[in-house]
Design brief:
about 450 residues; alpha+beta; Barwin-like endoglucanases; six-stranded mixed sheet; about 25% helix
Length: about 450
């Protein structure tokens, strides 16, 4: 999952790249994608410019892949069907809309009409209370709210009784629909994989910290036309070039630099831990080491599930995390080549405090926290989901972001840790409608009511 990403000062950048950055941005380095690209469902195509290096195809005959029912712990849970509320009638969002305010805002029903269970409201209030300090400091990229409009509800949340959470949300929030209101929801979780702090037999997959030569560049410092855009790469002589992709890293581009914080036992499990963005390492002595996102190589995230579906290697319904893991393990050489078609690589740091941390810099909570696109949802805001799968229905708090989580009414639900969380998140793909809960002052300003 995406945590708070500090941007280091711009270091020396090759003049050759900057001199042509406006017309030829794609040739110099990748526009920084959000971390992870979480969620096991195939993400939407990316628009950034990085091109994966050619991946060698294993020589010799390739064994056909025959899916088998998974018996591993955390096998995808059978969905519990539900009937979602239809979206509210709304005009089509304007072409080229890039924020919630531009996509259009429709007044929704009162909180009391949503049918939210009291225990879900209590859990959401606890998470909202934690979000308030960051929520009131952040500039809202969605264009929906102003910092001062959160002051009343955040002040009230401080001393509000958890058992009376339903009345809290009813009193301080109205609901709105963004654009067409049609929601798509995937899932993520905090994986636990076998690893060791030192390299030893059975533990030979390196887990790297952020390298010192990985450079973030804020392009807005060089041109007003590029405000809000960043690139990430490395200095090579007098040029600024894309950072090493997954293939290069797998081949040892970062070896012997002292960057390893641990060694994983299973390359495929570690691949999915990178997709999730954080996780737990189960060490040989049974203790747990927790790791979190510490940057990414700037390369585009490529969902291998979509690749396998497009090629007919997997059939619809088989591209869950569990189904993809089965595919990767059925033929390790072929699996390694497929994983390298995702050029993105995530770097980690050890976490010693509470976590995992979301994009607000606070711990996310299973069955409460949801990742969203901050251009369409103010981070920290409550979200109501009504979907064709019962498990994610109800009230959530937007506390995270993700590389595949882009656009209006696109969410990634967090389910915590353990086999149950893995089972639900790994196969989550639900559709229906979504409403945002915003301060009443924001709702009145946006809708005139």
């Amino acid at each position: 999952m995406a945590g708070v990403r500090g941007t280091p000062p711009v270091r020396a950048v090759g003049f050759a790249c900057l001199a042509i950055i406006l017309p030829l941005l794609a040739s110099c380095a990748s526009v920084i994608p959000d971390a992870g690209g979480r969620g096991s469902a195939p993400p939407p195509p990316r628009s950034e410019s990085a091109t994966p290096a050619p991946v060698p195809v294993p020589s010799g005959p390739v064994r056909p892949y025959t899916p088998r029912p998974s018996t591993a712990p955390g096998a995808a849970a059978q969905p519990i069907p539900a009937t979602p509320n239809p979206p509210l009638p709304a005009p089509a969002p304007p072409a080229g809309a890039t924020t919630a305010a531009e996509a259009g805002v429709i007044l929704g029903p009162e909180y009391t009409e949503l049918g939210i269970a009291p225990d879900r409201a209590t859990a959401a209030l606890k998470a909202f209370r934690l979000s308030c300090p960051a929520l009131q400091r952040r500039a809202d990229a969605s264009g929906l709210t102003r910092n001062a409009e959160w002051a009343e509800s955040c002040a009230a949340a401080t001393g509000w009784a958890d058992r009376d959470a339903s009345n809290f949300f009813s009193r301080y929030f109205g609901t709105v629909q963004i654009g067409a209101g049609t929601a798509f929801v995937t899932g993520y979780f905090e994986p636990e994989i076998a690893a060791s702090r030192t390299k030893q037999p059975g533990y030979d997959v390196p887990i790297y910290r952020r390298p010192a030569d990985l450079v973030d560049v804020d392009l807005g410092l060089f041109s007003d036309a590029l405000k809000g855009k960043k690139i990430r790469g490395r200095v090579d002589g007098s040029s600024f070039v894309p950072y090493y992709d997954r293939t290069a890293i797998e081949r040892g581009a970062l070896a012997n630099r002292g960057l390893e914080i641990a060694w994983a036992a299973d390359a495929a499990e570690f691949f999915f831990l990178q997709v999730q963005g954080s996780g737990r390492l189960r060490l040989p002595d049974g203790s747990i080491m927790r790791i979190g996102y510490d940057s990414q190589n700037g390369r585009d995230y490529v969902g291998i599930g979509k690749l396998l579906l497009d090629r007919g290697e997997l059939q619809p319904g088989q591209a869950s995390m569990q189904g993809i893991l089965d595919y990767l393990r059925a033929d390790p050489a072929r699996g390694a080549a497929v994983m390298n078609e995702n050029p993105s690589w995530v770097f980690f740091r050890e976490l010693t405090g509470p976590g995992p941390l979301g994009a607000l810099g606070i711990p996310v909570t299973g069955r409460v926290s949801v990742a969203a696109d901050p251009r369409y949802v103010p981070l920290g805001a409550p979200v109501f989901l009504s979907l064709d799968r019962a498990e994610p229905n109800g009230l959530w708090i937007a506390q995270d972001t993700g590389g595949a989580i882009k656009g209006a009414n696109r969410f990634d639900s967090f389910w915590g840790a353990g086999d149950r969380a893995r089972a639900i998140a790994g196969g989550m793909a639900a559709r229906g409608s979504a409403l945002l809960l915003l301060p009443r002052a924001s709702v009145a300003r946006l809708t005139g009511r």
